[in-house]
Amino acid sequence: MKKTRAENDISHRRLSRRAALLGGAQLLFVGGLAARMQYLQVDQADQFRLLAEENRINIRLIPPSRGEVFDRNGLSLARNAPSYRIVIVREDAGDVDAVLNRLSQIISLDQETITRVKDEMRRSAPFLPVTIASDVTWDDISRVSVNAPALPGITPEVGLSRVYPQGSDFAHVLGYVGPVSDYDLSKIEDPEPVLMIPRFQIGKVGVETKLEPLLRGKAGAKRVEVNATGRVMRELDRREGIPGSDLQLTIDAKLQGYVQARLDGESASAVVMDCDTGDLVACSSAPTFDPNLFVRGISSKDYSELTANKYRPLASKTVQGVYPPGSTFKMITAMAALEDGLIGPDDTAYCPGHLEVSGRRFHCWKRAGHGWVDLETSLKRSCDVYYYDLAVKVGIERISDMARKFGLGIKHDVPMSAVAKGLAPNMEWKAQTYGQSWRVGDTVNVSIGQGFMLASPMQLAVMTARIATGRSVEPRLIKSIDGVEEPVRGGEPMGLNENNLRKMRKAMFEVVNDRRGTAYGSRIIEEEMRMAGKTGTSQVRNITAAERRAGVIRNEDLPWERRDHALFVNFAPYDNPRYAVAVIVEHGGGGSKAAAPIARDITLQALYGGPPPVEAYPAKDRERITEQQERLRDAQPQVSVPGKDQA
Cα separation of 530 and 513, whole Å? Predict the structure, then answer.
């Protein structure tokens, strides 16, 4: 059947449309192909020419800039300084042994370094750079650069190295950084790629490790083009990392420097705490060490000297060391009895020099006894028998609960290494720890801060600040992060009878300012700066009955390790407490002789914001104090506070 003219026209139009569509598609394809060919052959000609010559594109991590640390006034405590280093990439080096051998002829490399580099390369991914030498000179960098064609895979770089400008003053607070170790990686569930870079530095102890995630930042990356010999031809693009956060501590560098100088020559620790905010304005352990030695790896000789030192310079004694608090604990026993209504401040007890409890004789430090004493006198003269008697009435549970209320036996939240919980023992603790029942004699020992009772210097400073204010002051070490102020924690009223607290403060005032007080020799003369405090002496050995009959051996006649610890706690000014101070001198003997003078000097330095006038001291001490201030001034590093010293 023949088609009509109309049907033929429709068929022709359909064919024309298909041809047009097909032709347009072909034209579009050819045009796109031509454009792509122009891009590859003309626009990217240089790049592909290099690639044709066996060039390769590598992606390399850019370590982030570590956050810096400052004191409360903006003084630099930990910063980053430029450091030249030489690195090697295994996959670019080819014959590693030959390359390292050629490099050793250009710069000084010992066999130990070469062995270490090979070990690190075996443990690392082939594309990761391994540091061969750090802190090299510009001359070394120049020689390596000139000989680059003969050193495939070797690259000189400029990195950042950690520096601690205040040296040993902040060693126990800040800690230090060091290369990532296998042990470090084993503690991290999913380590970031940047941590796999050999010799990458992370915090090892102190604030540096406790706030490592904040300080480290986030790594960046760059694409580099390398030729067949491993030489970097050019950098194609770069994504900068995120630098770590800057921290501001609550510590005052000037006061910290003074405290370290004042503790020099002792195995001791001291904490100064702001009574209002809980800020730790000084936190010092002696002896100390230079953290800069650890940044690139301390020598075996230097490390052995530190670990062999019997005064334990590596230990952060302010938070890590725990000691029997001795008589500084007597305020806790007294508060437990007062709050429970078991005694009144005017009630008295007779001290003949000892007290019989369950067939055992517990001795007072004063062999002849103190006679009749009330609460104020018992603290002022540090009578032990008064507290033995209280212990029998109060019991360990109330004493232990009161200790924790004042911050003892609690692990405080500060970002320092090995912060100790201490111990405020009770019946349950002894049953769980020793499988034994609690005895009345245990309570008697704890009542004067001996026996199982243990506290750190920081805990004693917290206790003292809470006595001074009646508020649950919490220690704070970080003032701000990236300029944002950290909140002050705690500070609520403790819910204790204010009259009882006033009695306690008044008794502590008499300890220092009454002629018969155990710390009268360390009083402050300036009326507006007078302090209240308590001495403590904690035994580290048992005194046998035979020794008591023959006469107790003086501390001075004992080996250093067997001498008593000396303690002193105080707050000042008495009428408007600003600072609480705790000092412990290991094996220093009596608290009144060894610890109280140090605490008094530190307190005055804090109150005056620098060297106090000698008129603040008793007249008999002024000549000695003048000489001491000059000596300590020479021993302290010169600290310039931004914005203050320029004014």
Answer: 8
- Separation CA 26–CA 22 (nearest Å): 6
For residue 84, the one-letter residue type is Y
Query: Which residues make Cβ contacts (< 8 Å) with residue 354, sequence separation at least 6?
Result: 361, 362, 363, 364, 369, 385
Say how many C-beta atoms besides its own lie within 10 A of residue 393's C-beta: 13
Contact 392, 356 (CB under 8 A): no
| Contact status, residue 248 vs residue 74, Cβ threshold 8 Å | yes
Mean pLDDT of the residues in the chain: 89
What per-residue confidence (pLDDT) applies to 645? 45
Q: Decide if 598 contacts 263 (C-beta within 8 A).
A: yes
Secondary element (H or E) of residue 458: helix 457-469
Indicate the SS3 state at residue 215: helix
Q: Maximum Cα–Cα distance for the chain, whole Å?
A: 145
- Residue 199 to residue 119: CA distance in whole angstroms: 12
Among the listed residues 244, 330, 317, the one whose alpha carbon sits nearest the alpha carbon of residue 287: 317
Measured CA to CA, the distance from residue 376 to residue 458 in angstroms comes to: 26
Q: Is 327 a catalytic residue?
A: yes
Judged by average pLDDT, the poorest of 6-20, 263-277, 357-371 is 6-20
Collapsing DSSP to helix, strand or coil, 468 comes out as: helix
* Catalytic residue of the set 327, 417, 472, 592: 327
| Predicted TM-score of the model (pTM) | 0.84
CA 51 to chain CA mean position, Å: 51
Residue 536 carries which side chain, given as an amino acid letter?
G
